Amino acid sequence: xxxxxxxxxxxxxxxxxxxxxxxxxxxxxxxxxxxxxxxxxxxxxxxxxxxxxxxxxxxxxxxxxxxxxxxxxxxxxxxxxxxxxxxxxxxxxxxxxxxxxxxxxxxxxxxxxxxxxxxxxxxxxxxxxxxxxxxxxxxxxxxxxxxxxxxxxxxxxxxxxxxxxxxxxxxxxxxxxxxxxxxxxxxxxxxxxxxxxxxxxxxxxxxxxxxxxxxxxxxxxxxxxxxxxxxxxxxxxxxxxxxxxxxxxxxxxx
Length: 254
Ligand code: NDP
Ligand code: 8X3
Known about the structure:
Blueprint: E1 5-8, H1 14-25, E2 29-34, H2 37-51, E3 55-59, H3 65-72, E4 84-87, H4 103-131, E5 134-139, H5 152-172, E6 177-184, H6 191-195, H7 200-206, H8 215-227, E7 236-239, E8 244-246, E9 249-250
Parallel strand pairs: 1-2, 1-4, 2-3, 4-5, 5-6, 6-7
Antiparallel strand pairs: 8-9
Helix pairs in contact: 1-2, 1-8, 3-4, 4-5
Bound molecules: NADPH dihydro-nicotinamide-adenine-dinucleotide phosphate and 2-hydroxyethylsulfonic acid.
C-alpha cells in the first residue's frame, strides 16, 4: 500500500477514527479532517506512535465552502494525488416530527451531510478524473434506504447521499473512478450524543438491550471494499447489527 493516499472526512470520532486506524495499520498515507483540532493532534500522535503513519491533519468545517476549497484545494504537492476519498463527516441533529422540528437542526444536517459531501467531492474528484484513477466511498445509512418516525430530515439527507452516490458513479464511470456507498444500521459512536445535543444519558439508551455495530465493524467493511481488485466495485452495502431488521426496528428482547 506504499504511497497510497486516503482522505477521510470526520476522522476525529467514530467510524472515521476507526477507519483511520485501520488504514494506518495497512500502510496508507492519510489526510484526516474534522473540526476539533485537539482530537486531530492526538490522533496524529497516536497513528505515528502505533503505526509510524504518515498523516496530514486539516481542521475545517465541511459546511464552509471557502474553507473546503482553501484547505483541500491547496494541498502540499506530495499530498495531492489522492487515491481514496471517504466522505464520512456527518451527523443527525435532533429527533423530531417535521411539524415540531428545529430549523437550525435541519440546516446542520442538510449543510453537512449533503452540501459538505458535495463541496469536498467537487474539490477532490477532478484530480482523480485527470489521473483516471480513484475511489470514493460515501458513508450513507440505513436511513438512506428507509424512513423512521421523527427522522424525516436526517433520512432525507441520507437518501440524498444514496442518490448522489448513484449519480457520481454514472458521472465518473468514463474516467475509471469507482464510487461505493456503505450504509450502516446502528453503530455505537458519538452519533446519538450529537443527535441529542450532548445528552449522553439519553444517547446511551439507544444502544441498550442489543449489540450494536462498532465503528471497527464499518472500518472492516471499508477495508474489504478497498482491498478488492481494481476491476471490482462494490456499489452499495447495507451493514446491520444482527438485532436490527430495518431502520427503527431493533429487537431488544434477547
Ligand atoms: P461521530 O459523531 O462519532 O463522528 C462524526 C464525525 O463527523 C466526527 O469526526 C465529526 O468531527 C465529523 N463532522 C461532523 N460534522 C462536521 C462538519 N461540519 N465538518 C467536519 N467534520 C464534521 O458519528 P459516526 O462515526 O457514527 O458518523 C460518521 C458517519 O456515519 C456520519 O455520516 C453518519 O451519518 C454515518 N452513520 C452513522 C451511523 C451510526 O449509527 N452511528 C449509522 C449510519 C450512518 P468534528 O466534530 O471534529 O467536526
Ligand atoms: C444512523 C442510523 O438508524 O439511527 O444513520 O438513523 S439511524
